[in-house]
Design a protein that fits this description.
Layout (H helix, E strand, L loop, with lengths): L8 H6 L7 H16 L9 H7 L11 H8 L8 E3 L2 E3 L9 H18 L5 E4 L3 E5 L8 E5 L9 E5 L3 E6 L4 E3 L5 E3 L14 E8 L2 H14 L1 H11 L3 E6 L3 E4 L7 E3 L6 E4 L3
Parallel strand pairs: 12-14
Antiparallel strand pairs: 1-2, 3-4, 4-7, 5-6, 6-13, 7-10, 8-9, 10-11, 11-12
Helix pairs in contact: 5-6, 6-7
Length: 272
């Protein structure tokens, strides 16, 4: 599924191929559904912009405004269609499912484990933790929430048969010639790295694909819009770490979230 891998189906689609496997087609449809749900805050067509910034190969650079303006004309999830196993992309467009790939992979791994009789397991795919059932002793799994500023974890959350996915600008970034820090999560509407009021977003949910995409989308939305999205849609819990030193969590985590003493952050429950 990785766009950067020449032998992947997504890379083939970006090179002009139209027919994909049923599995890839289903995931593409889900990506477009989530893009619609989040009003484009999650957008699987930002790959041309990611390439321009160097986040796909590590050759970091700051694109000129004119270059970004041109590339924005080759992005937009509404221009992509999937009919059965046939995909259609406009000229210059390119897909990247990295925003949901780990969550989807974790879900598939859980299905394989279940099919082989495994009832207890914990999977970690770099910022994406997925639990199958509970611990062998029947207690919940404990997953740490990273401190975006470094140092000790900000807290832990207890989960059973759920996943915990975190997105934040601190995970991958580069420093420009003038000392400006550019982080890897781009705003699909501007083509620039997000300059919002959040340090990270953690999603706790049953579905890994959704959690993966939502963690990115809500980070793009920012603090207030992320809370509004949760209130309007529900179906998941979340932890927002803000730039002004707050840890905001949904009521469903009230008895599952444990604060790390001395973290320096102020914890508060989000009002429904």
């Amino acid at each position: 599924l990785a766009a950067q891998k020449d032998d992947s189906e997504i890379a083939a689609v970006n090179d002009g191929a139209e027919v994909v496997s049923e599995e890839t087609a289903a995931l593409l449809r889900r990506a477009l559904e989530i893009a619609a749900e989040t009003n484009g805050a999650y957008d699987p067509t930002v790959y041309p912009l990611m390439r321009a910034w160097g986040f796909t190969d590590g050759n970091y650079r700051v694109p000129a405004d004119a270059e970004l303006d041109a590339l924005l004309q080759t992005t937009g999830w509404t221009e992509v269609s999937v009919d059965g196993t046939t995909t259609s992309l406009p000229e210059g467009f390119a897909l990247d499912l990295g925003g949901i790939g780990k969550g989807y992979a974790a879900g598939r791994c859980k299905e394989i484990l279940k099919a082989h009789g495994v009832t207890s397991a914990l999977l970690s795919l770099g910022g994406n933790v997925s639990a199958l059932g509970s611990k062998p002793d029947g207690t919940a799994w404990t997953v740490a929430i990273e401190n975006p500023d470094g140092g000790a974890y900000l807290g832990t959350v207890q989960i059973t048969d759920q996943c915990v996915v975190t997105s934040g600008g601190y995970q991958r970034y580069f420093t420009g010639p003038d000392g400006t820090v550019y982080q890897h999560i781009l705003d699909p509407k501007t083509g620039w790295p997000v300059q919002g009021d959040l340090l990270s977003v953690t999603i706790v949910a049953d579905n890994g694909t959704m959690a993966d995409a939502y963690s990115t989308a809500l980070y793009v939305m920012g603090r207030e819009a992320a809370q509004d999205f949760w209130r309007q849609n529900g179906g998941f819990d979340m932890v927002l770490i803000t730039k002004d030193g707050q840890v905001l969590y949904t009521p469903g985590l009230a008895d599952k979230l444990t604060e790390t003493e001395g973290s320096g952050y102020a914890y508060a429950c989000i009002e429904p």
